[in-house]
Design goal:
This protein is of the alpha/beta class. The protein is built from 13 helices and twelve strands. Helix 3 crosses helix 4, helix 6 packs parallel to helix 7 and helix 10 runs antiparallel to helix 11. The termini are far apart.
């Protein structure tokens, strides 16, 4: 892999390789863009097949956070960390303490949080070495587990997408097929059930499915059947890339709106949704509730204030879909455009300010 070529292609600012022999830490911190503010993005721990695969994932995720934070209206840039290792076997206190010292060394350019393979408890250990970490335990005055916030944001975004597709944002009587019933989507199912939606659910974890069936009267189907379920809304909430060449011809929903990351296997699958007239709520816009919630910690966490901001995901999805319709472009491209415009505007404004300041100094 030609790392500098990859960084130059998508204009990454910094990639930091961190290792601590004693604890076994092997981490990659990727900072994509800090135009809007310090880079915020979680720490993922995963058993990558190769180091190159880990680098590619860090870069991809960091760029995604730049766009997510920009569209969410946060004054934060995008970054991400991946730790190479098995989260079930390789974790230890020394590893996260060492990692915390690396974060501290970045002097606030990067702020981390939990992600796949890491937990609130891991963030508490990192917090012993640095203040540049969010999603720590509520005992520290933090927001704790971000799953309920993410679920609320997806619910709000789904209502906005429903309005675009059906003319009303009411989900009463609508059938929603939920792929994956983890922490986020179980709470999402609660919101949907309370509004009177019918639920179809699936998960490789049979216990999770049974829980949703018992709590919300959901109908269970096999994982391979969920994308072709007879439903109004398809909600991918587990695996990425479920919108692909195989699923598109089978899709019966009029809306795709869920919590999963990287729902489109490739951008062309977003083009296909657009051509089919299926309303798509771009994943990094609709699932931004968690990052909005943890960003509020920087102001001294206030749940009411945070959830008021998360509720505005409804407006963000509405704006994205309006751009898509008016410009005749797919929703994912409209979301990218919205993010890039905000970053570009601030970058240009800052450059003008700096130039004017330099001119003023030169006249003295």
């Amino acid at each position: 892999m030609e790392l500098f070529a990859a960084m130059e292609r998508d204009d990454y600012e910094e990639v930091l390789f961190c290792q601590d022999k004693a604890s076994g830490l092997k981490a990659i911190i990727a900072i994509h863009d800090t135009t809007l503010g310090p880079a915020l993005g979680g720490t993922r721990m995963w058993t990558y097949a190769t180091e190159e695969e880990a680098v590619v994932d860090a870069l991809r995720l960091a760029k995604g956070m730049t766009y997510k934070n920009a569209v969410a209206g946060l004054n934060l840039g995008g970054g991400k960390t991946v730790i190479i290792g098995d989260p079930k076997k390789d974790k230890n206190e020394a590893m996260f303490r060492a990692f915390g010292r690396y974060i501290q060394g970045l002097n606030g350019r990067y702020i981390t949080a939990e992600d796949v393979g890491t937990t609130e408890e891991d963030m508490d250990i990192i917090h012993q070495e640095t203040d540049f970490v969010t999603g720590i335990s509520a005992t520290y005055g933090s927001s704790g587990n971000p799953s309920p916030a993410t679920a609320f944001g997806v619910y709000r975004g789904m209502k906005a997408a429903a309005k675009a597709a059906f003319g009303s944002d009411s989900l009463t009587g609508r059938t929603v097929a939920v792929q994956g019933v983890g922490n986020v989507s179980f709470t999402l199912c609660k919101y949907l059930h309370e509004e009177g939606a019918r639920l179809i659910v699936t998960d490789i974890n049979k216990q999770a499915v049974s829980r949703a069936v018992e709590a919300y009267g959901a109908t269970a189907v096999d994982p391979g059947e969920i994308t072709q379920a007879d439903c109004d809304i398809y909600a991918p909430c587990a695996l990425g890339a479920t919108i692909n060449d195989e699923s598109l011809p089978l899709l019966r929903a009029k809306v795709v709106a869920g919590a999963a990351n990287n729902q489109l296997k490739e951008p062309r699958h977003g083009d296909a949704l657009h051509e089919m007239g299926i309303v798509y709520a771009p994943d990094y816009v609709i699932n931004a509730g968690g990052v909005i919630n943890i960003a509020d910690e920087m102001n001294g966490y206030n749940k009411e204030r945070a959830f008021k901001q998360i509720a505005k995901i409804y407006d963000s999805i509405t704006r994205v879909l309006e751009i898509s319709q008016l410009s005749g472009i797919p929703a994912y491209a409209a979301a990218d455009q919205l993010a890039e415009e905000r970053i570009s505007l601030l970058r240009n404004s800052r450059s003008t300010f700096l130039r004017n300041g330099q001119h003023a100094l030169s006249r003295r």
